[in-house]
Amino acid sequence: MILSLSCTFFFRLLREQWIRAKYERKEFMCVERQEPYSAGYREGFLWKRGRDNGQYLSRKFILSEREGVLKYFNKHDAKEPKAIMKISSVNATFQPAKIGTAHGLQITYLKDNSTRNIFVYHEDGKEIVDWFNAIRAARFHYLQVAFPGSPNSELLPKVTRAYIKEGYMEKTGPKHTEVFKKRWFTMDERRLMYFKDPLDAYARGEVFIGCKQNNYTVLSGFPSTVQGSHWQFGITIVTPDRKFLFACETEEDQKDWIAAFEAVINRPMLPREYAVEAYFKHKP
């Protein structure tokens, strides 16, 4: 439900800013009024959610296509950034329902090969859309350099991406005797991440979902020996190393999650995804 609300808001926000750009700001008629989305550099202030206290504070952000990074600073006059995000792993998606504030944007990147979430917003819809478009432009430039000769039709879907599915499920531990705990799950490409809270900066854990050719399978229900779940609609993910057990609140949620897992498992793995799988297998 949250995913569909976010997608609806995303298209509504972009449509609104497109209409305003054309009829209100006259950007289509006057070149000098057009936003330099592909200029390769953007600097400004966004409200960022604190990792530990959840408080939103104004933070300075700089996007540099030349350096290939997006960075932010804890203090307006700080010389060194608090975090540096490589454009190669950055993703941005509108998440107003999850964040609970207008024009909310979720930015993710890989830090030590784990997903780091950053939640930001701006009061002005145009400003947050401009940041979103600037990130997309920087990502597109990176992909053109990283994959020379690839047609735009192949690169554009990789610029930014919506999550395959998000929502609550219950999970148990590797012994299948541990108490089932309610967690927020996010399916991002082949990474299934779970969080105690949807706005956590880091996942409590990540599960790699491979393909059926490599012995990954999704099953409806639990093994007969499993007990203790509060929610009754079970899902079993079979991997070459172990089984992961999840429980859904409703049968509809169960069917939706199984469909999402099947879509990923039935898709052949790309060469770069084998490297991700190898990391998960040797993860400390």
From TrEMBL:
Family matches, as SUPFAM superfamilies: PH domain-like
Single GO molecular function: phosphatidylinositol bisphosphate binding
Pfam families documented for this protein: PH
InterPro entries linked: Arf-GAP_dual-PH_domain, PH-like_dom_sf, PH1_ADAP, PH2_ADAP, PH_domain
UniProt domain PH: residue ranges: 39-140, 162-266
GO cellular component, one term: cytoplasm
Designated name of the protein: Arf-GAP with dual PH domain-containing protein 1-like
Taxonomic lineage from the root: Eukaryota, Metazoa, Chordata, Craniata, Vertebrata
Gene assigned in the entry: LOC115387128
